[in-house]
Design brief:
346 residues; alpha/beta; 7-stranded parallel β-sheet; two-stranded parallel sheet; 17% strand; globular
Length: 346
């Protein structure tokens, strides 16, 4: 790196929920000289200072040659690219998420990039306790094997275990955030979990009769911009290893009820799961019952390491993150990228 020019950072999945926030955070930091955002499709928004864009489809074997060119001379690579659908075709997501990640890791090695910052997830964790203070980064990362998302995240944790041993000269950081929300990604998340044909205008608090209180429904969320700040700090600081990331409070049915101004009603998990499974099999909703099973088993995380070693603290509360998501869904908010495009109806 030329100190007068600043760091050169490459971001995969740069047009997604977290990617757009990460690119902005890096663009605003004077220590970063340039950012190269990579995605399958170029964004339509006005370019940010110091940010360039290029295209790559990581699911394609021939993307290897493209990555070798694009990663040359980078000081850090932030790997965020991830495909959530189609949930009925796990081979498709495996080729994109797992095989695509392996191509990125190998390209980092070949290009001699000093730092690789990988987007893992709370979904990589094995089932664990639901109560504070939560599990630290040493908790097993075997995921919930029935859910493709967890299975893929856990597999890549094993890959990185070996990668770190074989290439100790590369600083590897693994971010394990909770569920990530922001207003500008609300339309995309509605499509991912509720389906393309679920109108956003129907997801209003006054139209929700009650919030089901399910056994195990305790989870952590984080605003995407707060997650982006953690990625920025990981580029700048000489840190390694995994970091749990979440807002300071745990979200449960009672918290959701207060946020939505709805009654909380105890409900049997098998009944809710059965309804979701039927809707998923009929392709009414894309969210699989396997992911539902995983959510009810995910442990609560302790984020002390991120505070102490990264110097990171979330600015927004869990309620702030969820409220921004609900506002965005109702308004059809989205950013000018293909994944995040806003629409209240589709």
């Amino acid at each position: 790196m030329n100190a007068s020019q600043g760091l050169r950072v490459v971001v995969t999945g740069a047009t997604g929920n977290v990617g757009t926030s990460v690119v902005r955070a890096l663009s605003d930091d004077p220590a970063v000289g340039s950012v190269l955002g990579l995605a399958r499709r170029l964004p339509g928004h006005k370019p940010l200072p110091g940010v360039a864009w290029d295209t790559v489809d990581l699911s394609r074997p021939d993307s290897t040659r493209t990555l070798d060119t694009l990663l040359a001379g980078a000081d850090a690579v932030i790997h965020l690219a991830w495909r959530f659908q189609p949930t009925h075709r796990p081979v498709v997501t495996w080729r994109s998420n797992v095989e695509g990640s392996l191509r990125v890791f190998d390209a980092v090695r070949r290009a001699g990039v000093p730092a690789l910052i990988h987007a893992s997830s709370v979904g990589a964790y094995s089932p664990g306790p639901k109560w504070e203070p939560g599990v630290d980064e040493q908790w097993p990362t075997h995921g919930w094997p029935d859910a493709a998302y967890c299975r893929e995240k856990a597999y890549l944790e094993r890959v990185l275990d070996t990668f770190e041993l074989r290439h100790p000269q590369i600083r590897v950081v693994r971010m394990r955030p909770g569920f990530l929300f922001k207003e500008g990604a609300a339309s995309e998340q509605r499509r991912i979990f509720g389906g393309r044909y679920l109108p956003g205008v129907l997801l209003r608090p006054d139209l929700l009769p009650f919030v089901p209180d399910l056994e195990g429904l305790r989870f952590q969320v984080l605003h995407s911009d707060d997650a982006a700040d953690a990625y920025r700090l990981a580029v700048l600081r000489d840190v390694r290893g995994p970091f749990n990331l979440a807002a300071d409070t745990v979200t449960d049915a009672r918290a959701l009820g207060e946020l939505l101004d709805s009654r909380v009603v105890r409900a049997p998990s098998p009944l809710v799961r059965g309804a979701l499974a039927t809707a998923w099999r009929m392709r009414v909703v894309p969210a699989s019952p396997h992911l539902f099973d995983a959510v009810l088993r995910l442990p609560v995380m302790d984020c002390g390491r991120a505070r102490e070693e990264l110097g990171w603290r979330p600015v927004r509360s869990a309620s702030d993150a969820l409220s921004s998501f609900l506002r965005g869904v109702a308004r059809g908010e989205g950013e000018a990228t293909a994944p995040l495009a806003g629409n209240r109806w589709a």
